Amino acid sequence: QVQLVESGGGLVQAGDSLRLSCAASGRPVSLTVMGWFRQAPGKEREFVASITWSTGSLYYADSVKGRFTISRDNAKNTVYLQMNSLKPEDTAVYYCAAATRFGILTTRNLYDYWGQGTQVTLSS
Fold first, then answer.
1. How many other C-beta atoms can be found within 10 angstroms of the C-beta atom of residue 88?
2. pLDDT for 1
């Protein structure tokens, strides 16, 4: 059974940086793509970024392009989301997700496993 555990959230000020981590345990070989999503209060969960385990192919939502960087450490089965130049609108619960199919996966239904989420809050 795949388990995803996020960490690294917190309360920061606008302009600060944070790095989120997602550790995948019990990772089967079939896991192909890892993604980060976020959900702000009263809003739908939205795609943030994704990375393919094998090739390192990256994909970002326009809202975070140039500010966020997704990366992975295959040896540690861990995916990271480096978030720079944070803005108040980045406030959300951030979720890690894992898929067993290839492609540019930007919708929730394409992912098979989810973490519990980690809160990121920007103070005004």
1. 11
2. 82
Q: How many angstroms separate the CA atoms of 27 and 32, rounded?
A: 10
Confidence of residue 28 (pLDDT cuts 50, 70, 90): low
**Average pLDDT of 58-62?**
97
Measured distance CA(87)–CA(13) in Å, rounded: 8
Sign (positive or negative) of CA dihedral 10, 60, 51, 114: positive
Mean pLDDT of 37-60: 96
- Cα-Cα-Cα-Cα torsion 98, 70, 57, 49, nearest 10 degrees, comes to 60
Percent of the chain scoring above 90 in pLDDT: 86
Q: Per residue in 44-63, is it b (16+ CB within 10 Å) or e — as a string?
A: ebebbbbbbbeeeeebbbee
Phi, psi of 9 (to 5 degrees): -70, 170
